Amino acid sequence: MKSHRVGTAPTPAALRTAKRRVEDLPADEALKLLGSVELGRIVFTRHALPAVRPVNHLLDAGDIIVRVQDGSTLAALLATQEDAGIVVAYEADAIDPQSHLGWSVVATGYATAVTDPAEIERYASLLQPWAAGTGSGAIRIRPDLVTGFRLREDSP
What we know:
Blueprint: H1 12-16, E1 20-24, H2 27-34, E2 39-46, E3 49-60, E4 63-69, H3 73-79, E5 86-95, E6 102-113, H4 117-126, E7 135-153
Antiparallel strand pairs: 1-7, 2-3, 2-5, 3-4, 4-7, 5-6, 6-7
């Protein structure tokens, strides 16, 4: 990643951003967009510091479902959770690398282990792991706060 000194002339990429605007999204639209993609990032606390993991997900009745691998950090965190769960943030986006247009959504809420065997089996069939390993279950994130924005071309 290139850095630029403060006070230097704007780069062509910086000039292009002047033709864009940021539009806040209502929570329901933001959640719908999050459900339209398969990959996101879960943010949680590990050793009192923020940790981020890319994971695949699905949206089920407004909840974000993520599969976990045996022995993974997320599985270990959920094994020690209280009944209320652990606070996490979940972020997904779709931003075109050429035009720099698209959207980004962050959902914050409590993550709990999915414990119903029928639900675990259903999610295992719907969420195939991207890496080798045995799936150990699933996490349900119940979003309490959903925020998002869309990067659009500014009208002339």
